[in-house]
């Protein structure tokens, strides 16, 4: 078996062309190892972020855990499930050839990937998509150009993963558990704000736990099984039915105001997985958000694309275009299913037309709009789309752009 090469498909790249390490099949954190697992689940967060690379046998380029890996610069290689059993001991990932070699590689040498041709100036007011505090530190340690990153965007469920919080368990408890959860989120956000440079802010995408993800991070609260969780009870639909989350949110805001004082305005909120402006307004009314707290809208469904003008009129402080889910729903191709990978295309004309419509409508309304882009797609988007106010990118890819030499 030693020296055998297994061909795969690279789901997330990294800063090196060659990655060498010892296989970790335990599911527990092992610093610097190559994590080997059939699927990447939220409950494996600690093991994933401790790894130098990940090898799996399912999933797509833009799954949630794959996105965390991309943000951290952790390569993810998908191979045939029958080959997964052969991985043990030392292995070497070759990113250029999208393959893995079993056995030691004494001559393996890390090389920098070729710098991308897109310039930092092209990003507008850049937004870094982060998983925890370490990502803010990574960006802001990049030197003077770090100030070009105007905001940091984090999903509340990713914050929970990093902080070891179980939101549904808290919401299933009493009022004290609910308030404790809100205050714990606030404490984490305060640490984020302390790490910001002048002029930077945090945007929290409010809790969006799909039932399949919720089940893996919940110990006590019942989680109903759904036949199609992607299109089930999550996002704005779930927020509208949860009084406990509303109460936790108010506890969080009260704690933020108390701890941050004038810095309270550096934390903004965003509504996830919206259908239309009526739903946005219902969420806003339900959570009883103070007027001074900006509330953005996340556009990631075809219905929301067509509601862009109405979302702006309903008072959305800004728009975030979630191209990963948008491509999934426009093309009816599950972004986590490698069997339909050829159908899932972030550059498909229908997807580009949707982004174009959102940006044009938002700019006409005077509402700031930011578009998520993979580094591999960025030049394509810049050539074919009207300019948004800024692009959102994963931490590791944005870091590469900040550090690349200027022409």
UniProtKB/TrEMBL annotation:
Annotated keywords: Kinase, Magnesium, Metal-binding, Transferase
Family per similarity comment: Belongs to the PEP-utilizing enzyme family.
Classification via Pfam families: PEP-utilizers, PEP-utilizers_C
Gene Ontology MF, one: metal ion binding
Residue span(s) of domain PEP-utilising enzyme C-terminal: 197-371
Species whose genome carries this gene: Actinospica durhamensis
Protein name per its UniProtKB record: PEP-utilizing protein
Cofactor(s) demanded: Mg(2+)
Domain of life where this protein originates: Bacteria
Domain PEP-utilising enzyme mobile span(s) in chain numbering: 31-77
């Amino acid at each position: 078996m030693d020296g055998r090469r297994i061909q795969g498909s690279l789901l997330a790249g990294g800063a090196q062309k060659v990655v060498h390490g010892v296989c970790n099949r335990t599911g527990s954190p092992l610093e610097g190892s190559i994590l080997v697992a059939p699927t990447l689940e939220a409950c494996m967060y600690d093991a994933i972020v401790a790894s130098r690379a990940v090898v799996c046998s399912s999933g797509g380029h833009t799954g949630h855990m794959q996105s965390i890996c991309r943000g951290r610069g952790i390569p993810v290689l998908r191979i045939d499930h029958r080959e997964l059993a052969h991985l043990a001991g030392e292995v070497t990932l070759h990113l250029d050839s999208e393959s893995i070699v079993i056995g030691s590689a004494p001559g393996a040498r890390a090389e920098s990937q070729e710098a991308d041709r897109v310039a930092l100036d092209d990003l507008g007011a850049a937004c870094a998509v982060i998983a925890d505090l370490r990502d803010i530190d990574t960006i802001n340690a990049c030197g003077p150009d770090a100030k070009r990153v105007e905001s940091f965007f984090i999903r509340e469920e990713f914050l929970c993963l990093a902080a070891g919080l179980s939101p549904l368990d808290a919401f299933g408890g009493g009022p004290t558990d609910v308030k404790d959860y809100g205050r714990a989120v606030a404490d984490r956000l305060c640490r984020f704000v302390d790490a910001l440079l002048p002029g930077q802010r945090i945007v929290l995408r409010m809790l969006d736990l799909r039932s399949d993800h919720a089940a893996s991070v919940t110990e006590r609260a019942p989680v109903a099984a759904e036949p199609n969780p992607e299109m089930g009870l999550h996002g704005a639909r779930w927020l509208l039915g949860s009084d406990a989350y509303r109460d936790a949110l108010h506890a969080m805001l009260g704690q933020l105001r108390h701890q941050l004082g004038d810095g309270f305005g550096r934390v903004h909120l965003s509504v996830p997985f919206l259908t239309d402006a009526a739903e946005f307004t219902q969420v806003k009314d339900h959570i009883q958000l103070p007027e001074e707290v900006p509330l953005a809208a996340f556009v990631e469904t075809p219905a929301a694309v067509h509601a862009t003008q109405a979302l702006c009129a309903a008072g959305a402080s800004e728009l975030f275009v979630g191209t990963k889910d948008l491509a999934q729903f426009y093309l009816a191709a599950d972004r986590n299913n490698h069997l339909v990978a050829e159908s899932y295309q972030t550059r498909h004309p229908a997807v580009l037309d949707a982004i174009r419509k959102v940006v044009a409508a938002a700019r006409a309304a005077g509402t700031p709009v930011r578009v998520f882009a993979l580094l591999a797609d960025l030049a394509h988007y810049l050539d074919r789309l009207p300019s948004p106010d800024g692009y959102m990118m994963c931490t590791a890819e944005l870091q590469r752009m900040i550090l690349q030499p200027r022409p």
